[in-house]
Design a protein that fits this description.
Length: 432
């Protein structure tokens, strides 16, 4: 779509350019087997390879003619006569053909057909010319043989490789902060008082949930980047009968003095109690991520549902469109959604739950950049999923865009709802 090309072109990605053209017809041949052709690959990805947006399977091409039953994969009948000029597009001057002795090759084309004799054990002479691909034992990278072998295997690798979609939260997936500031209503011509009212209502619910169920009063000054960052201090004690209110976690001086930085900790006993709280938060998230109504309780459930409905009307189904893209990514076996937000971890988890995003983001895939910044979080994500994975950054801010550019990751900007629609369309067509 035009939106997709415009957004990705801003990152320097050429969209949908064909990476491989079909070879020209072999007019000098008088005898040949069934014809075959290579499809054009119309998807430009980060690794420079292209993929067909509508292919039915990883390596099934609709315009491939089937080979005769007696033929194996990539086995083709050899014509009884051929001319050296026929192979000039495929063999450079540095390459010595295994079918002709080098003494028989002259600058001019061979006019007299030479009968081909198949050796019992043909020896392939390694070719060290610059055009040879490493590890191909002398086959030039431009040869038809290399194209027939390399491109299908490359497509298989790309489709089987892990793809990590790194999302921003506020103003990308959800609309929250811009409701409070009035920027959303100003930009999209909405009722300003209504927008602010809904924003304050959602803010109250976010912090009520964080304080009452997710220990935010205890953990506000001890914020972590990831839910498992203090798991090493957890001794695995059973918490079913544990009383968090009377365990003496907060000292009279306040917990803030014990959490001044990532390297400053309290005693072993205090750190264990901190780990207990993060473990319980993880348990609550996993238990109620698909049942937020049960978490907030019956008095608040109807209020929460009403708030969600009114926000969707005000934002023109912004969240619904974002959830559609998230669901498309989660439906793929080799794709994963990761959330990197500047909100503190506990309020971020509260937001994710209240906006109904728990099924899209496992708690292990949520990172808070409040303390370290997004570049550090991106580095942690890359270390976790590996350098071979393909990363796509989706957001609205300058910070994530600059980090994505620095790390050579494609960036999909979301500045309005049509950007999310275009993203869903690109995902449906396997462009991403």
């Amino acid at each position: 779509s035009a939106d997709l090309r415009a957004v990705m072109a801003a990152y320097g990605q050429t969209q949908y350019s064909p990476a491989l053209q079909s070879a020209g017809p072999y007019t000098p041949y008088t005898y040949h087997t069934q014809g075959y052709s290579m499809p054009s690959y119309n998807i430009k990805t980060e690794d420079g390879l292209s993929h067909s947006p509508g292919q039915n399977s990883l390596l099934s091409y609709s315009n491939f003619s089937s080979t005769p039953p007696s033929q194996g994969l990539y086995s083709y009948s050899t014509p009884s006569h051929y001319s050296q000029s026929q192979y000039s597009p495929y063999y450079n001057t540095h390459y010595n053909s295994p079918y002709l002795a080098s003494s028989n090759i002259s600058p001019s084309a061979i006019t007299t057909p030479i009968p081909y004799q198949h050796p019992e054990h043909p020896a392939v002479v390694p070719n060290h010319s610059p055009e040879s691909h490493p590890g191909t034992d002398g086959w030039p990278a431009s040869s038809l043989y290399w194209r027939m072998i390399y491109y299908p295997l490359s497509i298989l690798f790309i489709f089987l490789s892990l793809r990590v979609f790194v999302w921003d939260l506020d103003e990308t997936i959800i609309i929250f902060h811009s409701l409070l500031t009035g920027s959303f209503s100003t930009r999209f011509g909405k009722d300003s008082s209504k927008a602010v009212s809904l924003g304050l209502w959602m803010e109250e619910m976010i912090f009520n949930l964080a304080d009452s169920r997710l220990f935010f009063n205890d953990l506000e000054e001890c914020d972590q980047v990831h839910i498992d960052d203090v798991a090493s201090d957890d001794n695995g004690q059973d918490l079913s009968m544990y009383n968090f209110g009377t365990d003496g976690f907060q000292s009279p001086a306040g917990a803030g003095t014990l959490c001044l930085g990532s390297g400053v900790h309290g005693g072993v006993d205090w750190m264990r109690k901190l780990a207990f709280r993060y473990r319980r938060v993880k348990e609550i998230y996993n238990t109620y991520k698909n049942n937020v109504g049960g978490l907030v309780g019956s008095p608040k459930r109807e209020e929460w549902l009403q708030l969600r409905r009114e926000m969707e009307v005000l934002t023109d189904l912004w969240l619904t469109q974002a959830v559609k893209a998230l669901a498309l990514i989660n439906s793929r076996p080799n794709c994963v959604n990761v959330l990197v937000t500047t909100t503190q971890l506990i309020p971020a988890l509260s937001k994710v739950l209240l906006y109904g995003l728990g099924s899209a983001f496992p708690i292990e895939n949520i990172y808070s950049a409040t303390k370290t910044g997004k570049e550090s979080c991106f580095e942690r994500v890359a270390q976790r999923f590996g350098r071979r994975a393909v990363y796509v950054v989706i957001g609205d801010g300058v910070e994530e865009e600059s980090v994505a550019k620095k790390k050579n990751m494609p960036f999909w900007r979301v500045s309005c709802r049509p950007d999310l629609e275009a993203l869903s369309h690109a995902l449906e067509l396997d462009y991403l």
